[in-house]
Amino acid sequence: MKIGFIGCGNMASAMIGGIIKNQVTAPADILASTKTAASREKKKEELGIALTADNREVAAFADVLILAVKPFYYEEVIKEIRDVVSEDTIVVSIAPGKKLAWMEGLFEKPLKIVRTMPNTPALVGEGMSCVCGNEKCSSEDVDTVCRIFAGFGKTEIVEEDMIDVVVGVSGSSPAYVFMFIEAMADAAVADGMPRAQAYRFAAQAVLGSAKMVLETGKHPGELKDMVCSQKGTTIEAVRVLEEKGLRSAVFEAMKACVKKGREV
Ligand SMILES: NC(=O)C1=CN([C@@H]2O[C@H](COP(=O)(O)OP(=O)(O)OC[C@H]3O[C@@H](n4cnc5c(N)ncnc54)[C@H](OP(=O)(O)O)[C@@H]3O)[C@@H](O)[C@H]2O)C=CC1
Ligand SMILES: O=C(O)[C@@H]1CCC=N1
Q: Maximum CA pair distance of the chain?
């Protein structure tokens, strides 16, 4: 299977890193394009794949063609490649807000289009993605995309209107989690821990907590209660987090994120 990426920035690089590491396809079967020569050189070295300046070459090469440019370049790129995309090609979007019907209209011919929403933990094989195919896609086509995405994490099939929510809860959420880890590490540094060690402690605590949610089946509130000893240290931290509005901050941030996705 030949996989093409139009655009090879943060998200495409994370996906390609996972695809290669997990041997979903060989590096020789991946072709990507970027806008600038400098980024092509950098990505060639970093990922060990072929790169080109020619988006049409990528579109003609790919069995699965992933549009990995910013949402505001989608229209320009689709118009540039539409006459070389074959009806057998599966076109994959990773952009928020760009609806299947809108892309179908721009391609001006019936094509297999799959909307997805990955996230950057794909780079370490721990991505979380959703997938939604249009009416031209068979279940095998959707399975093909799921198989690629399973190479760098977990994947679930959703209805199209759920994708905006996925942006908030997993597409964008690594950024909030990194802020949380950074803030915890800053506090540990303030109390005397060396910076590198503080990142290790904070990140491993987040990783372990996430695994407990996924693997114990217990409610997050119950897991929180298991940490909070009577008259203990944790409940004091929980009291301050509630006072400072952690839950409300997360709620409002995610509402802003989903709203923005719907406006793109
Ligand atoms: N970053 C993330 O966490 C996530 C991003 N996404 C989505 O992924 C998509 C890409 O985002 P991201 O990787 O962060 O963006 P980046 O800015 O990191 O990468 C964009 C890439 O597109 C290339 N590019 C720009 N214009 C063109 C063009 N006309 N033809 C070919 N290549 C072009 C750039 O080339 P050059 O480097 O030479 O400028 C660069 O390689 C977006 O739609 C985004 O919404 C989805 C989920 C998560
Ligand atoms: O910030 C963005 O728009 C993209 C989509 C999800 C994560 N990054």
A: 68
Please name which ligand lies nearest the alpha carbon of 173.
2
Q: pLDDT, tens digit, for every residue of 53-77?
A: 999 999 999 999 999 999 999 999 9
- What would the two tokens of residue 108 be? 């001006």
Domain 173-263 has CATH 3.30.450.20: no
Name the β-bridge partners of 64.
3, 90
With a threshold of 0.80, does the pTM exceed it? yes
The C-alpha atoms of residue 16 and residue 19 are separated, in whole angstroms, by 5
What ipTM, to 2 d.p.?
0.98
- Rounded to the nearest angstrom, the distance between the alpha carbon of 90 and the centre of ligand 1 is 19
Using DSSP's 3-state secondary structure scheme, residue 226 falls into helix
Q: If one looks up domain 3-161 in CATH, what number appears?
A: 3.40.50.720
End-to-end alpha carbon distance in the chain: 31
Q: Outline which parts of the chain fall under CATH 3.40.50.720.
A: 3-161
**Separation of CA 104 and ligand 1 centre (Å):** 21
